[in-house]
Specification:
Elements (H helix, E strand, L loop, with lengths): L1 E5 L4 H10 L4 E4 L3 H7 L5 E4 L3 H5 L6 E4 L5 H6 L2 H4 L3 E3 L6 H16 L2 H9 L5 H4 L10 E5 L3 H9 L6 E6 L11 E4 L3 H7 L2 E4 L13 H6 L4 E5 L8 H10 L2 E6 L19 E3 L8 H20 L14
Parallel strand pairs: 1-2, 1-3, 3-4, 4-5, 6-7, 6-9, 7-8, 9-10, 10-11, 11-12
Helix pairs in contact: 6-9
């Protein structure tokens, strides 16, 4: 059996795989050209999968995606949806770091960290500027869109800050730890109305694309802060800019954008009440170790003919 490794996780990982599975041929292929050469006779591919490579993948039976949200994989390879190729991913590996990032953004807004940094750099000691402007988190409400692994991890941190948490999700579920209620998506307006901190952790699918538009921004609790972590394109950025300018939205922290990199002429770059990070909220050292372990366990299961972990619903997009 041949396995194409289409994501560079270092030589130590390749050596470990070869030692753990000596009966398997592993073919590192980190460029598109290498993948096109290696995939025609491969049964398994790990990492990424381009549309061009999938067209040549005549023997592919299983694709292990390196990350969690795979909407762009399906855009490049729409035929993958109807194919017999089983697709698995690695949800949860990124949840800890992303949840930490979410609260880093909450605290940055609550305690005016960007302004404090600006004043430090200007050697400016201005007590009056901050008097009465810090936000205490106990008693505030966080609304989370989607109770996947990221949403759950964020919610778990909220009780430590004395916050109430409500959420919406496409699935019916009992409220996870830290969450008062999980509502159906039809109650999104209710979530918007109560949220001091509105956090988007949903995957980008046909159902979520443009989900938070001008209408939804206008229904946010006045003075709310918006935090977008999962995928760009779920929030209408033009409507968000207008909400920020009007004061309807007090601030926004964006780790994702509709177009990445965020265009240099986007007004979001220069808005004083916006924090931008380049889609790196999950990028801890531990995330790669977890993803390696998921692939190794799934490969063990695949060889043994056992059910794989994290099988994706390709039609639903998650």
């Amino acid at each position: 059996m041949k396995v194409v490794l289409a994501f560079d996780m270092g030589e130590d990982f390749v050596r470990d795989l070869r030692a753990s599975f000596p009966q398997i041929t592993f073919a590192p292929a980190y460029t598109v050209e290498e993948q096109l050469r290696e995939i025609p006779d491969a049964e398994v591919q790990f990492g990424q999968l381009s549309g061009e490579a999938f067209q040549k993948a005549g023997k592919l039976r299983w694709f292990q995606f390196i990350g969690a949200g795979f909407d762009y994989i399906l855009r490049e390879s729409p035929e993958l949806v109807e194919s017999d190729v089983v697709m698995t991913n690695a949800p949860g590996t990124h949840a800890i770091a992303m949840a930490d990032h979410a609260f880093a953004m909450v605290l940055a807004f609550a305690h005016r960290v960007p302004e404090l940094i600006d004043d430090q750099r200007a050697h400016r000691w201005d007590i009056q500027k901050y008097r009465g402007r810090m936000i205490e988190l106990p008693g505030t409400t966080m609304g989370i869109v989607a109770m996947g692994e990221i949403g759950k991890a964020i919610a778990q941190r909220a009780p430590g800050f004395g916050m109430d948490v409500y959420a919406v999700d496409v699935r019916q579920m009992d409220p996870p730890f830290g969450v008062r209620e999980v509502w159906e998506v039809a109650r999104l307006d209710d979530l918007l109305a109560v949220s001091d901190w509105f956090v988007v952790t949903a995957p980008r699918t046909e159902a979520t694309r443009g989900m938070i538009g001008r209408r939804e921004i206008e229904r946010l609790k006045p003075g709310a802060h918006v935090i977008a972590l999962s995928r760009g394109g779920i929030i209408d950025e033009e409507a968000l800019v207008d909400g920020l300018r009007s004061g309807q939205v007090a601030g926004a922290a964006l780790d994702v954008a509709s177009k990445e990199p965020l265009p240099s002429d986007s007004p979001l770059w220069d808005m004083p009440n916006v924090l931008i990070s380049p889609h790196v909220s999950a990028d801890s050292s531990q995330i790669w170790e977890r993803r390696q372990q998921i692939f190794k366990e799934n490969l063990r299961r695949y060889v043994a003919g056992q059910p794989l972990l994290n099988v994706c619903d390709k039609r639903a997009g998650f």
